[in-house]
From TrEMBL:
Transmembrane segments: none
UniProt keyword terms in alphabetical order: Endonuclease, Hydrolase, Nuclease
PROSITE patterns for this protein: SMR
InterPro entries, A to Z: Smr_dom (IPR002625), Smr_dom_sf (IPR036063)
Origin organism lineage: Bacteria, Pseudomonadati, Pseudomonadota, Betaproteobacteria, Neisseriales
Stretches assigned to coiled coil: none
Keyword Hydrolase: yes
Single annotated GO MF: endonuclease activity
Entries under Pfam families matching the protein: Smr
Protein name listed in UniProt: DNA-nicking Smr family endonuclease
UniProt key word Cytoplasm: no
């Protein structure tokens, strides 16, 4: 899959740059909100300020993604995570497996964690989509804990069965590093935002 692999890496690099632009815009909006909070506190007089949440902000890696050497790519592919492609039972709109339940889901939907990368799986076969997902999970985990996957609603599939949507969500539910997912846009079931297990220093 050398050509597909290189295309995937280029695509992920482009999307990472888009995510970086979105992050900068979000930080600018956050600074404006913080300025408004300061003004409000001055207007109402002496108040006890809220404690800093000390939310973790992962360092951003802006370096371009380099394709693996062929022998490394072959070894990596042996470790790829796959699920079977059979079955059409549609998975739930939200999912969490780390004991936090609705807390993680609400945080995903509210943007608590910055989205460090996103990927669009339109046009991929089921096997190709799983290859891309494996690379995307690794790419996202090296930069943070939250990413967004666009898989489509599946209304154009044969028999109106959401094949890719079902596959992606089943894959996420089974993957050991995925803690939760949720639909981030109300009324749009064509995408999911994911929360990943934070990697240790030895895994990074």
């Amino acid at each position: 899959m050398s050509s597909d692999f290189e295309h995937t890496l280029k695509m992920l690099g482009k999307q990472a740059r888009q995510a970086e632009k979105a992050r900068i815009e979000a930080e600018a909006a956050q600074r404006r909100r913080e300025a408004e909070i300061v003004d409000f506190a001055a207007a109402v007089g002496e108040v006890v300020p809220l404690k800093n949440t000390q939310r973790y902000a992962p360092p951003r890696d802006a370096s371009p993604i380099k394709p693996r050497a062929k022998n490394e790519a072959a070894r990596a592919e042996e470790d790829y995570f796959y699920v079977g492609t059979g079955g059409f039972d549609e998975p739930p709109a939200t999912f969490s497996k780390n004991g936090q339940g609705q807390n993680d889901i609400r945080r995903l939907q509210s943007g608590h964690w910055p989205v460090v990368a996103d990927v669009d799986l339109h046009g991929y076969t089921q096997e190709e989509a799983q290859q891309v997902l494996n690379e995307f999970i690794d790419f996202t985990a090296r930069r943070g804990v939250c990413g967004e996957i666009v898989h489509g609603s599946g209304l154009g599939s044969s028999g109106y069965k959401p094949v890719l949507k079902t596959l992606v969500r089943r894959w996420l539910m089974a993957h050991p590093d995925v803690l939760a997912y949720a639909e981030p846009h109300p009324g749009n079931d064509g995408a999911v935002r994911i929360l990943l297990r934070r990697r240790t220093a030895s895994e990074a």
